[in-house]
């Protein structure tokens, strides 16, 4: 069953023209000239209950706009959008009980009061029965190890602690969908890891659907099996993470340490990209032979001390996807 | 938005204030001194001229106290909330409000309920009670009810106007200058309306209904005739508050819709 249905959704912002200078600002008041900027262009996808989806794209790709439309904050300019069977902005209050929303950089906590007070208020806002509130809070407190700072004022928390609090708070009312807008931005490795593990647990055990935007591909690898990639308002990829990797990440980097410098080496399938004498680095492009065959062939001919094979990381896969898109666009322009 | 939630917010707001209690009490002391000064200036003024437009010192004290008391009540629910709305729209914190299962307007005004206005209430409340005793009026039950309704209505007018100004930040992004204008115009109602010319009287009655906050109800309680409204209409004066507040609320919701891209 799908809980989010996005069908041909477009969002354009109107920006009224501003004129420079003092006279210009007076003129701005009276003219109605504007430029339309399309943040989201004709996007369609559907998300099933219990899925974890990464929503990815460079800055200004329209990620936040999409999240805001799904949560009912913004209204699409055209297209149809249904979340939990409802049109989000029309049933905003009703849907909000079933949704958790975390905006990475905008805190809604009470800065000067202990963390517990913000949780407590949440209980009143969502009218939660004490038992439900308690058991959910205990669950989060334990998995996110929050007990040490429950009584500390929010202003004294580290960024990582604060983000854990925000995420815990978004789950207290047992939402069916959790939206996270850049939940790991600015966090250290350990904090990121803990949040990723927690989100995976929530998705797998509590069956909460997760939609998260991020710039960190590791978030997506750790939490999401599916990703949607957008660029300049357009949807450019929707599918599994491993599929995209297979499609684009067909390069591997092979570094070989020789016992002594073997001189020039000619091996089919491997292209030399760096030569430091005894250490040489090759690029392997997937073809009819495997990388192991190539390396073992080398090892049979030359005295090999050590060899390492690196698969391209997902970051460079994504980079490649963006580059391909840019190139396509350029070609299209040249033809047109 | 339930009463339980409101009390919870008030408890948290009190706790928050007490984190910086020195600052809080100092600010209250400063406000009390400042407003006492305002009263003294008006009092000195009347010492010199005996009356302003025929109004004596206790009458003026009543007029000014209603204005200040209702301002404190109304502004506690709206002034800072509406002034900061501009910033909330710009940095996106308003979004968090829109994903809660509560009415965004009611939550916003209650979340920002400002305990700092206690100083205004103490000063104006005391002078109000003194003025009522000094005036030696004959009190009927109807008049007491009328006074209570006047205060509620006045607070609602102030909230309504401040809300309307706040809502303009959804449309123009900047609304600061309108708040300055609000305080400038509000200064007019420290004095009886007949002090001013016809234009200002019409302005404060039919365009921006500031005169309904204190001048008309006070005239009615003091059995004074007014230029623009007849005696019978006076009973309807307390209706202006709910009307004003409703209009402000509607305009605010229209603003939110516009912000969301639904209307406008």
Automatic annotation (TrEMBL), chain A:
Q: Per its UniProt entry, which superkingdom is the organism in?
A: Bacteria
**Which residue ranges does the record assign to the ABC transporter domain?**
4-257
Extract the SUPFAM superfamilies matched here: P-loop containing nucleoside triphosphate hydrolases
Mind telling me which Gene3D superfamilies this protein's record contains?
Answer: P-loop containing nucleotide triphosphate hydrolases (3.40.50.300)
State a single Gene Ontology molecular function. Answer: ATP binding
Which PROSITE patterns does UniProt cross-reference here? ABC_TRANSPORTER_1, ABC_TRANSPORTER_2
State the UniProt keywords alphabetically: ATP-binding, Nucleotide-binding, Transport
Q: Which PANTHER family match?
A: ABC TRANSPORTER ATP-BINDING PROTEIN, ABC-TRANSPORT PROTEIN, ATP-BINDING COMPONENT
What is this protein's record name? Answer: ATP-binding cassette domain-containing protein
- The source organism is Paenibacillus lemnae
Its lineage reads: Bacteria, Bacillati, Bacillota, Bacilli, Bacillales
Automatic annotation (TrEMBL), chain B:
Record's PANTHER family? INTEGRAL MEMBRANE TRANSPORT PROTEIN, SLR0610 PROTEIN-RELATED
Q: Which Pfam families match?
A: ABC2_membrane_6 (PF06182)
The name this protein goes by in its record: ABC transporter permease
- Which keywords does the record carry? Membrane, Transmembrane, Transmembrane helix
- Source organism per entry reads Paenibacillus lemnae
Top-level taxonomy: Bacteria, Bacillati, Bacillota, Bacilli, Bacillales
Q: Enumerate the InterPro entries for this protein.
A: ABC-2_transporter-like
Classify the source by domain of life. Bacteria
Locate the transmembrane regions by residue number: 24-46, 61-80, 115-132, 144-173, 193-213, 233-252
């Amino acid at each position: 069953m799908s809980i989010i249905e996005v069908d041909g959704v477009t969002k354009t912002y109107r920006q009224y023209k501003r004129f420079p200078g003092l006279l210009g600002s007076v003129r701005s008041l009276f003219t109605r000239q504007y430029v339309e900027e399309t943040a989201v262009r004709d996007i369609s996808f559907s998300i099933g209950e219990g899925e974890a989806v990464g929503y990815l794209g460079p800055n200004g790709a329209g990620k936040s706009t999409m999240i805001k439309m799904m949560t009912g904050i913004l209204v699409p300019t055209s297209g149809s959008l249904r979340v939990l069977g409802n049109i989000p902005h029309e049933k905003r209050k009703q849907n909000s009980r079933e949704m958790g929303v975390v905006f990475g950089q905008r805190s809604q906590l009470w800065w000067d009061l202990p963390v517990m007070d913000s949780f407590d208020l949440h209980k009143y806002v969502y009218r939660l029965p004490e038992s439900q509130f308690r058991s959910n809070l205990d669950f989060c407190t334990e998995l996110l190890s929050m007990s040490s700072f429950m009584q500390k004022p929010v202003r004294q928390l580290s960024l990582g602690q604060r983000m854990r609090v925000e995420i815990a708070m978004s789950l207290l009312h047992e939402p069916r969908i959790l939206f996270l807008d850049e939940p790991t931005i600015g966090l250290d490795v350990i904090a990121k890891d803990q949040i990723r593990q927690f989100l995976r647990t929530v998705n797998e055990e509590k069956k909460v659907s997760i939609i998260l935007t991020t710039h960190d591909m590791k978030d997506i690898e750790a939490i999401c099996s599916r990703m949607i990639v957008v660029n300049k308002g357009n949807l450019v990829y929707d599918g599994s993470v491993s599929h995209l990797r297979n499609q684009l990440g067909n390069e591997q980097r092979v570094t070989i340490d020789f016992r002594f410098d073997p001189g020039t080496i000619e091996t089919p399938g491997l292209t030399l990209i760096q030569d430091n004498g005894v250490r040489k680095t090759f690029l392997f492009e997937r073809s009819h032979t495997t990388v192991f065959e190539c390396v073992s062939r080398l090892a049979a001919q030359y005295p090999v001390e050590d060899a390492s094979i690196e698969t391209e990381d997902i970051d460079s896969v994504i980079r490649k996807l963006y580059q391909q898109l840019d190139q396509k666009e350029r070609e299209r322009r040249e033809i047109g | 938005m339930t009463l339980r939630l409101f009390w919870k917010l008030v408890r948290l707001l009190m706790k928050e204030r007490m984190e910086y209690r020195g600052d809080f009490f100092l600010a209250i002391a400063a406000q009390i001194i400042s407003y006492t000064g305002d009263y003294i200036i008006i009092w000195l003024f009347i010492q010199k001229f005996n009356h302003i437009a025929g109004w004596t010192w206790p009458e003026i004290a009543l007029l000014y106290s209603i204005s200040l008391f209702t301002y404190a009540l109304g502004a506690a629910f709206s002034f800072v909330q509406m002034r900061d709305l501009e910033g909330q729209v710009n940095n996106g914190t308003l979004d968090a409000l829109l994903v809660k299962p509560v009415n965004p307007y009611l939550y916003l005004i209650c979340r920002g309920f400002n305990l700092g206005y206690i100083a205004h209430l103490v000063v104006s409340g005391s002078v109000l009670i003194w003025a009522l005793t000094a005036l030696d009026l004959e009190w009927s039950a109807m008049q007491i009810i009328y006074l209570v309704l006047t205060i509620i209505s006045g607070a609602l007018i102030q909230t309504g106007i401040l809300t309307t100004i706040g809502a303009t930040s959804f449309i123009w992004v900047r609304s600061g200058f309108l708040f300055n204008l609000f305080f400038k115009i509000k200064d007019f109602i420290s004095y009886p309306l007949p002090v001013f010319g016809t234009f200002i009287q019409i302005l404060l009655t039919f365009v921006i209904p500031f005169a309904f906050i204190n001048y008309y109800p006070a005239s009615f309680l003091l059995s004074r005739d007014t230029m623009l409204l007849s005696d019978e209409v006076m009973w309807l004066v307390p209706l202006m508050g709910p009307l004003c507040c409703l209009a402000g609320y509607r305009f605010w919701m229209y603003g939110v819709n516009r912000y969301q891209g639904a209307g406008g």
